[in-house]
Amino acid sequence: xxxxxxxxxxxxxxxxxxxxxxxxxxxxxxxxxxxxxxxxxxxxxxxxxxxxxxxxxxxxxxxxxxxxxxxxxxxxxxxxxxxxxxxxxxxxxxxxxxxxxxxxxxxxxxxxxxxxxxxxxxxxxxxxxxxxxxxxxxxxxxxxxxxxxxxxxxxxxxxxxxxxxxxxxxxxxxxxxxxxxxxxxxxxxxxxxxxxxxxxxxxxxxxxxxxxxxxxxxxxxxxxxxxxxxxxxxxxxxxxxxxxxxxxxxxxxxxxxxxxxxxxxxxxxxxxxxxxxxxxxxxxxxxxxxxxxxxxxxxxxxxxxxxxxxxxxxxxxxxxxxxxxxxxxxxxxxxxxxxxxxx
Length: 343
Fold this sequence. Notes:
It is built from 16 helices and eight strands. It has helices spanning 8-14, 30-39, 49-55, 61-72, 78-94, 116-134, 153-160, 186-195, 209-219, 234-243, 251-256, 268-273, 285-288, 292-301, 307-320, 325-341; strands at 17-23, 97-104, 137-143, 168-172, 198-203, 223-226, 247-249, 278-280. The chain starts with 7 loop residues before the first helix and ends with a helix. 46% of the residues are buried.
C-alpha cells in the first residue's frame, strides 16, 4: 500500500505515464491550429481562439467525425505535420509520459494534394526530433480509417508498409464504427499480420459488443481501441479477461461523444475490478479538452482509484505496448523507481 503525505494531484502529475491511444490529428494545440487557419486563408466563423474552442463542442459521435474532417483541411504542407507531431510529443513529455504509441492517418489529408508518403515522412521526422530533444519514446500506428471503405484498404496498407519498423509499428482502424463494420477489413488485417504489423482496432465505442467480437475473431487484433461496450455481453467480458486482450480506454472521449452520460456511469472501474487488462488514455486530448494527466486525475478523484490502482494501470499499459520485452523491463524499472521514491 502506498502511503504518502504528498499532494495526490502532484503525485499524479509527476508520475511516469504510458499513452497507447492518442490520435495525432486530435492532439494539436489550439494555438497551432489557429495559426494554420490564419496561414491558409482563415474561416469567417473563426476569428479568435475562443471561437475555435467553441467549434469543438460536440453534439454526438457523428458531429465529432464531421468536425474532425473540418480541421484536417488546414493541414496542407509536410512541415505542418512535422511541427504538430513535435509539439504534441513535447506536451506529453511535460506530463511525464515516457512512452507512447500514437495513431496517425495520412489519408485524411490527401484531398489537399499531399502524398501519403510525404506526410508519413514528416510525421516520423517530428517524432524523431522530439525523441532526441526530450527523451520520450514514441511509435506510430497507421489508422487506415473505416470511412474510406474496405475496397481500398489493401492499397492503404501498401502505402504505409515501407515505413514499417522505421517509425511505424502497427495498424489501426478508426472512424465510423457503425457504418463500416470491422469484419469488412479482415483481408487487410490478415495481410498486415503477415507483414509484421502489430494490430489494434477501434471497437465497442459507437457500436456494441458485436463490433468487439468481430475485431477479436475476424481481425485477430492484439488490442482493442475503447472496447467499453463489451460490458453489454457477459460472455465477451469473460473472453477478454481470460485472453487478457488489452482495452485502450478513454473516459473523457466517451463522455464527450455521449457514449456515457457521466464518469460514474462509465464502465472503466467495473472492467478494471473484473480483472481485464484495461489501460487509460486520452484519445484526442485537444478536441476533448482532457490530457492523459487529466484522465488519471479523473480516475482518482471521481472513480476513487487508489494510487496503487494507478500504478497498476501504468503496468497494464507497459504489458499491452507493442514493444520488445527488454524495453518493457526498462519502462517497468522507471515506473517502480518513481513509486518506491514516494512510499
